[in-house]
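Input record (one chain):
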Amino acid sequence: MEVVGKEVAGNDMNICFQCGLVCENSVSYCHSCYEQRSESDFRNEQRWRNAESDLQVVEANLQKERSLTQRLEATLASYREMLLQGIHADVTIETGDTDKTPAHRAILASRSPVFKAMFEHELKEKTCAVIRVADVPTPAMRALLLYIYTGDHDTKALQEHGMALLAAAHKYDIPDLKRVCETAVASMVLPFNALETLHQARLYDANWVKKACVECIARNVKQVAFTDELRSLIYRNEDPEAVLEIIQSIASGH
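The corresponding structure, as predicted from the sequence alone:
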């Protein structure tokens, strides 16, 4: 005979959960035990049934999510292969040092409104198979394209070309990548590079980086006060707003 609640081998009977007697049909309790059950017993059993049903729904949803994740990963892997191999590319990105990277207009346009505008309006880029980008170094452009195609971050490019990649993300209006770059650049702000980084951050509306720079300068004002970078900001009037932010931060004690 099987354990409580399981069907008895060879027949269609169950064993009562409460007394262990064999019950006819597929029921959980014999007639006598069923009659003796309290209202709280019924409520508890209903809660268990509801919980079991909820668990089944959760498991089904998790299975759907796993399936979607697997399909998404497969799609992104295909996109990566298309980028790396230049499969059916219909445009070439040429950076300032004449490095050429085959790409796909549809993918670029789907992720960047700037690329989309290039391909939709009567610009030179629309009729030409080459887009020349003189102001973005090759490693930063490759990292930008990798993110557009797969959503992956090039850690090495973030460390070595973080500001250039931030500038590219700003130029091509890819805000999620820009946020990633801001976090990376802000983490690398030090007294010796804070002024130059602040100046560049202002050019690209990188507010998180600006905040990190101003706070770093305010904390290390003695190290920064006599640098050539600060003289340039003040005497050459290169970025008066940056100087004002620094003074206000120092005055507020931050």
